Amino acid sequence: MFCQFKEVKTVTKDQVLHDKVYQSPVDTWQTRFQTWIVTGLLGLAAVWILLALID
C-alpha cells in the first residue's frame, strides 16, 4: 500500500531480466520537489533573459 513498484526489464545477450523497483512516498515527494525547483529556476532565468533583452 505504501510502496509502489514498477517492473524494469534489462536485456542481456541471451535473456531478459525482470526486476521490481520499489518507490516510496518519500521518493515521489523528492522527485516532485526537485521538479518544482528546476522549473522555478528555469522560469527565473527566462524572466532574467527577457528583462535583459528589453533594456
Q: Nutshell version of this structure?
A:
This protein has 55 residues and is of the alpha+beta class. Helix content is 55%, strand content 29%.
Elements, N to C (H/E): EEH
Oligomer: single chain
Helix-strand makeup class: alpha+beta
Distance between the termini: 54 Å
What overall geometry do the principal axes of the alpha carbons give? elongated
Strand content: 25-35%
Low-confidence stretches: none
Taking all Cα atoms into account, the compactness measure Rg is 20 Å
> Which sheet architecture does the biggest sheet show?
2 strands, antiparallel
The level of helicity is 40-55%
Query: Mean pLDDT, as a whole number?
Result: 84
Number of strands: 2
Number of helical elements? 1
Strand order of the largest sheet: 1-2
Describe this structure in words.
With 55 residues, this protein is of the alpha+beta class. The protein has a domain at 25-55. Helices cover 55% and strands 29% of the residues. It has one helix spanning 25-54; strands at residues 4-11, 16-23. The chain has a two-stranded antiparallel sheet with strand order 1-2. The longest helix is centred in the last third of the chain and has 30 residues, at 25-54. The chain starts with a strand and ends with a helix. The relative contact order is 0.13.
Key features?
single chain, 55 residues, two-stranded antiparallel sheet, 1 helix, elongated
Indicate the topology.
Layout: E1 4-11, E2 16-23, H1 25-54
Antiparallel strand pairs: 1-2
